[in-house]
Design a protein that fits this description.
Elements lengths: L15 E4 L3 E6 L17 H6 L5 E3 L8 E8 L1 H12 L4 E9 L6 E5 L2 E3 L7 E3 L8 E10 L4 E8 L6 H8 L23 E9 L6 E5 L5
Parallel strand pairs: 4-11
Antiparallel strand pairs: 1-2, 2-4, 3-4, 5-10, 5-11, 6-9, 7-8, 9-10, 11-12
Amino acid sequence: MTKPAYLPPPDNGLSVIFADSSLVVVDKPAGLLSVPGRGEGMADCLVSRVQAIFPDVLSVHRLDMSTSGLLILARGAEMHRQLSRLFRERQVEKSYVAVLDGLLSAEAGEVDLPLIADWPNRPRQKVDFEVGKQSLTKFNTLSRDLVGHTTRVELHPVTGRSHQLRVHMSALGHPILGDELYGGEAEMKANRLLLHATDLSLFHPLTAANLNFHCPVPF
């Protein structure tokens, strides 16, 4: 029997972190597309599930299907423009937690490697110093598991390229556990991608209130 190309998690209700007349913040489960995919059977996604409750929401940014955690949606076209501008101007701070294969020696650092789509192997991305787009990730080591030979890190993407965190960690020689695209042997060391969007901070586009959202790590 052929395995379905996309088998989203069951819809057991949304985990809404925050909602007002301008925006909605939800905790996206791992395995669920952020927006509809291309082709048959790819319509079920976070946006469609949120629209069942908040019909006016629009996608502002995305998380990889395999990534869980915080995602913001705009309510209405004007708020979509406002929030999109904040993301474009890098006025939204994002933090992730990941579990890496191996023992990372550095306590903190950054990965500054340009990325571009690996067209023959889509949806993979690759490092390309000639035509890649500038991509920067900062990291802090949280803990090391000497028995499991893994490292838990906090990741801060300065830029927002597709698969940026996954490619950058793999480029360090410490891919994220459960990564089916860049993990190599690390793919089989977890039953999902161990990458979670834990924190989002921004100023509310209408009220200028400082918004700080947190979503505990499920692994």
